[in-house]
Amino acid sequence: MNTSTPTPRQKGPGQEKPCIVTLDIGTSSVRALVFDARGRQCKDLGAQIPYSVETTADGGVEVDAGRLADLALETLSALHEQMRRQRVRPAAVAGCTFWHNVLGVKKNGRAATPVLHPFDTRADGAAAELRRKLDARALHSRTGCVLHASYLPAKLLWLSEARPRAFHAARRWMSFAEYFMWRLFGEGAESVSMVSGSGLWNQNENCYDEEVLRVLPVEPCQFFPPKAMDQPLTALRKPFKTRWPLFDGVPWYPALGDGACNNLGSDCHSPQRFALMVGTSGALRATYQAPYPELPGGLWCYRVDRRRLLLGGALSDGGEVYAWMRRTLALPSASAIESRLANLAPGSHRLTILPLFAGERSTNWRAGARAAIAGLGAGTQPIEILRAALESVALRFRMVYDQMSGSLGAPREVVASGGALLRSRVWTQMMADALGRPVVACLESEASSRGAALVALERLAIVEDARELNGRMGRVYEPIPAHCRIYEEELQRQQDLYSQLYPN
Q1: What is the pLDDT of residues 219-245, one digit of tens each?
Q2: Does domain 319-441+477-501 have CATH number 3.30.420.40?
Q3: What are the strands of the beta sheet with 41-50, ordered from one edge?
Q4: Which residues make Cβ contacts (< 8 Å) with residue 197, sequence separation at least 6?
Q5: Model's pTM, two decimal places?
Q6: Over the stretch 152-186, which tens digit does the pLDDT of each residue have?
Q7: 415 C-beta neighbours (distance < 10 Å), count
Q8: What is the CATH number that goes with domain 19-258?
């Protein structure tokens, strides 16, 4: 296997200290950045290209693998040209991408299926079918994942039934990250981090789960071999060797799950700090190195790597709730909204909202659940609906927080990242009030990319541990006791509405 690694402190012309190139393939954009040996972003280097996923009326969310790969290639080419002009050669290339994606690849290396997105809910029926065949609780305990449309067991079963021709054309099943490495090197590379969020990985044994594979129409040989995981590749295929001479001959590490990288990039290295990320979607997570835990039913557990675990919960709707409200209610500019939100007292809107526009993941995992608004009156104002919606998202995070703190203990503080949240001080204060814990604003605008760079610095032995390199932190939002009491009442009303709409 192509895994030789150059000297960790290798330097290029005009370069005084090693740097790391990162490629973040997110759910709405692809970005390539550079970080120095202290984990600081090089602000004069970077490229980003936004993109949109394809959606279908039946809950499909997917993206063409070739199109996404081309965007990643274009982004890296733009960055390479910048680095060529500045005569900077990286010590390594690292990356991260969104968990729970999968595509089938033909024998000739071409994609047999699109990349299925984590928000794709078409496999909800397949998940129900698997729950009839498997002990769902035992599988959750072993894999850290529930039987839900988000994860690969349901996706693979759905594909076999809904698209049999494409399914049988696939000789290999892989994440987009592995597929992209295949394009660049002629062979794949995969990380334990990515497969740990698939629902196919036995977290206790660090290998594929035999029981779940037995009930799926796939073979173990169709997945990346466990013993070869986490190994870098160095020799680019000829077209890319010529296109990116600065990126050839350095280790390209397999991409990690973006949530794991976000935790490290926002300095959340232990259960003393929970990481709260609100982008298009949202998640609350804690990193720890203790033995694999007894899992609360509403949470998941993945891996940063073989020694670090990640416990948490995720919401399909985070910043998208804010965006949907702004579009639908024809609200004014963000600055005008912020001041009007601040003038409304918590709970004064008398509304109860379930912000489940894209279905539910944590904590009840109902893919078919949908948003609801109760309490609307003739005098209800659009800004009140927005305030209630933002509070409702904070309360969904509170439900995740309660299960996490019950398992790991209450954190000292919560570190917030993600542009959707940090652009609004009012919303960030709501989070502190709903959680009842101080919320610290992380000033690392690219926390996931930074986390990927930190892991690469560890693997190159440039730093011993990512905890040595502190990120930049900003304002601390202290919970306001009177608001906390109001949100406790709001939480109960939200749970009551949920029970009425979705009884067990």
Answers
A1: 999 999 999 999 999 999 999 999 999
A2: yes
A3: 41-50, 29-36, 19-25, 92-97, 256-257
A4: 99, 100, 145, 151, 257, 259, 300, 302
A5: 0.91
A6: 999 999 999 999 999 999 999 999 999 999 999 99
A7: 24
A8: 3.30.420.40
